[in-house]
């Protein structure tokens, strides 16, 4: 599943091509995604895109009328900016067609993504209860420490909870916990404020670097400009279970936490 850096890479890839351009038409070939594609999208004709932002793993396309298109890439979704006359492929489900001869095309083989319309995105049910952005000033070690008190859930699951902080998916939770030297199965409530300071710094560093490098190349994802990300070659633990730790040379251990593959170093992470 595309994680926050992949979504941010996509946002940055598409924004310059659609921002300040006027929509001429919307083509919906397959309305049944995770939820039905909003019929209100049809009212976007003649609307100009004023901004393209992101909240967690949601891409938000804002129009001059004040309405917003909410896009979630699901497990296999991707967005491309293409010439309007480009013949659609099998899983090209929705086109937003613009006045400069280009379209924003949504492709999703598994159809677990979503394209929705809202007049008030900040209060939309999918967005209203989300935690702070991990790269914002609102995400601090005090925030994590206070929310974690008396929590017995594993710290990895705790930081992957979008109500605690958005966008820390499985790959980057593994990497951040390794960088902070924290065992992923340690109860969140048993971690000190000092260690949460290391963890928040690690999350910011890992996500920031991944965005800089274009996200992580996964089987189902390439960036909005059609180029794959290049962060995967930098991964220290994720996907390396049974291999040697690059820090201490001890064998990395792989377990399951919350139905997710979790890799850690028994020597470096306590």
Stretches where pLDDT falls below 50 for ≥5 residues? none
Residue fraction in strands:
15-25%
Tell the overall outline.
elongated
Count of DSSP E strands? 10
Distance between the ends:
28 Å
Q: Helical content, roughly? A: 10-25%
Number of helices: 5
Give the strand line-up of the largest sheet: 1-6-7-5
Kindly provide the radius of gyration, computed on alpha-carbon positions and rounded to a whole number of angstroms. Answer: 20 Å
Note the run of SSEs as H and E: HEEEEEEEEHHHHEE
- The average pLDDT value, as a whole number, equals 93
Q: Which class best fits the helix and strand makeup? A: alpha+beta
For the biggest sheet, the summary is: 4 strands, antiparallel
């Amino acid at each position: 599943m595309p994680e926050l850096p992949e979504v941010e890479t996509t946002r940055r890839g598409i924004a310059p091509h659609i921002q300040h351009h006027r929509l001429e038409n919307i083509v919906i070939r397959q309305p049944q995604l995770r939820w039905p594609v909003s019929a209100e999208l049809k009212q976007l004709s003649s609307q100009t895109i004023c901004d393209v932002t992101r909240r967690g793993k949601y891409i938000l396309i804002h129009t001059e009328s004040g309405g917003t298109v909410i896009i979630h890439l699901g497990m296999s979704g991707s967005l491309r900016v293409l010439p309007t006359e480009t013949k659609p492929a099998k899983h090209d489900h929705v086109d937003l067609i613009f006045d400069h001869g280009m379209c924003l095309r949504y492709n999703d083989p598994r159809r677990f993504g979503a394209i929705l319309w809202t007049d008030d995105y900040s209060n939309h049910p999918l967005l209203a209860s989300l935690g702070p952005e991990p790269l914002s000033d609102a995400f601090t070690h005090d925030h994590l420490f206070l929310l974690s008190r008396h929590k017995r859930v594993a710290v990895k699951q705790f930081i992957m909870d979008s109500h605690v902080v958005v966008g820390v998916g499985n790959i980057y939770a593994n990497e951040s916990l390794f960088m902070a030297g924290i065992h992923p199965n340690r109860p969140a409530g048993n971690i000190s404020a000092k260690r949460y300071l290391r963890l928040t710094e690690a999350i910011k560093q890992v996500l920031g670097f991944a965005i800089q490098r274009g996200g992580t190349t996964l089987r189902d994802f390439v960036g909005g400009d059609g180029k794959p990300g290049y962060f995967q070659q930098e991964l220290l633990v994720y996907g390396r279970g049974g291999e040697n730790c690059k820090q201490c040379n001890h064998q990395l251990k792989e377990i399951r936490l919350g139905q997710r593959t979790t890799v850690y170093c028994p020597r470096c992470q306590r």
